[in-house]
Amino acid sequence: MPLRIYICPMIGAGQHPNTTQPWTDATGPWRSLMVNFLNPSLGDSGEGIDHPGHNIVITLVDASASTLTTIEADIRVTPVIPLRATDRTHLAQILATPFSSYPLAWRNAARAKLEGWGINTEWITASHTMKDVLRQVIKLFSIAQVMDGAGQTEVINFIKNNLDSTVGSLSAAQRNAASSWLTSRGVDTSWITGTTTVRQVVHYISDKFPVIYGRNVGHRFAGEDF
Amino acid sequence: MAASIYTEARGWYVWASDDFNRTDENPITGWTKPTEAAMGCTDCKVVSNQVEAAGATFSIVYKNGTFHADQASEIVETVASPTFAAAPCVRLQSNGGYIISAHNPTAWYLYKYTTAGGWKDISTGVPSATAIITGVHGIDMVGTTLIMRAADYTNLMQATDSSWSGGSPGICMEASGATDPIGDDWYGCCDEAVSSGAIPQMFPWGGIMNGVMMGVSHAN
User: Fold this and answer.
1) B103 touching chain A per CB within 8 A
2) Shortest CB distance from B111 goes to which of A17, A146, A214?
3) SS3 A71
């Protein structure tokens, strides 16, 4: 079956799973919008990781062409690879292809979408592959989850700011929480000043994922190592 | 059968276990209930040498002890419920962790709970399980990958998550007050205190070793 990677919203409200069903998009536990589309009994499957700050999820969908068509018809869903892969081998080829090789209009749209979700794309050069781009996405989502598990709401709020905001313009609560938590995880923050941008901080901490997560592990996602 | 709650080195693995063979208890001893009120957890209890929910909602407990972050948890469901399941959990702690839950005879969910985010289903699509059937239900988590398995060790669902990196393996017994599931013979891996911090290389009932799926019985 064809495969494609998407970013879509989480639906629900974080309610207890015992909340009376049927859940609407606005009720029940948080869950991926993809739950509305995928039918495992027909062979559809997905693998996702969510960003608890923005309540979005990046998902590899392995499903029938008709399911993908239904997914892509929902305006809440954004494809993050430019085409459907015919199989896992083709997916690996797409991920290994330089981001710059895809049409400029698609790249600009993808960059705008990612930046709107607080994902820095300014670092991308002609030599970076699609996998390089998605690696930053997955790392950022993972770090946001670590923050979530640690109850660091203000640190999550810090990375949700506009990427071009300067640290000095943010609330003291966000600045202090971010500094304190990152330092406690062994991340050097001494280089950050009032004129440092959120973009610089977000990119820096994405690169520090093994330090923040506490283990030198890479992500296995979409059948690929990131 | 003699009661046993212990850890033992089994080859490379160190397992904590509980066969629940002891005098009835409510709440269960040797286990801890998450305390965060919003999780809505009640305790589990021991009845007739087996474990079941002590309340009419999520009854979630995690094994006392210090465990490695890479964990496996499995429980045998001895009495099936038309609604819920005896389900294993990993990385449980006072304010969150990962649990398996079932809401009707064919649909399983993989949830996480965090204080900031509340309850979240992190499986992508509701997996089609054979049914909530008696037998072994297992979950393992290595690094950021969670895999839930059915009694025949088939991979029911998989998720990637980074929210929790510590905690303990546990169990989730859901109840509605009607025909509720009953569990027995729980095993959890791995006890860091006994294994001296060694990272488990694979999980006996079917886990991951260097990304390769393993499919051997825990009897091996």
Assistant:
1) yes
2) A17
3) helix
Per the CB < 8 Å rule, is A220 touching B160? Answer: yes
A33 or B105: whose pLDDT is higher? A33
User: A142: which chain B residues are within 8 Å (Cβ-Cβ)?
Assistant: 144, 162
Between A167-171, B6-10, B42-46, B142-146, the lowest mean confidence (pLDDT) is in: B6-10
Q: Looking at the partner chain, which of B117, B121, B174 has a beta carbon nearest the beta carbon of A148? A: B117
Cis amide bond preceding B27, omega within 30: yes
Detail the DSSP E strand segments found in B105-167. Answer: 107-114, 118-121, 135-142, 145-149, 155-160
Query: Nearest to residue B98, comparing CAs of B108, B116, B111?
Result: B111
Nearest to A167 by CA among A133, A143, A190: A190
In Å, how far are A147, A160, B113 from A209, measured between CA atoms?
A: 12, 17, 22
Supply the ipTM of this predicted assembly. Answer: 0.84
Between the alpha carbon of residue A166 and those of residues A171, A207, B100, B115, the distances in Å are 11, 20, 42, 28
Which of A1, A8, A20, A30 to mutate against chain B (most B CBs within 10 Å)? A30
Query: Torsion-angle region of residue A43: left (phi > 0), alpha (psi -120 to 50) or beta?
Result: left
Q: Is the pLDDT of residue B118 over 50?
A: yes
- Give which of A5, A209, A189, A200 is closest to A88, Cα–Cα: A5
Query: Which of B109, B127, B143 lies nearest to residue A17, judging by beta carbons?
Result: B109
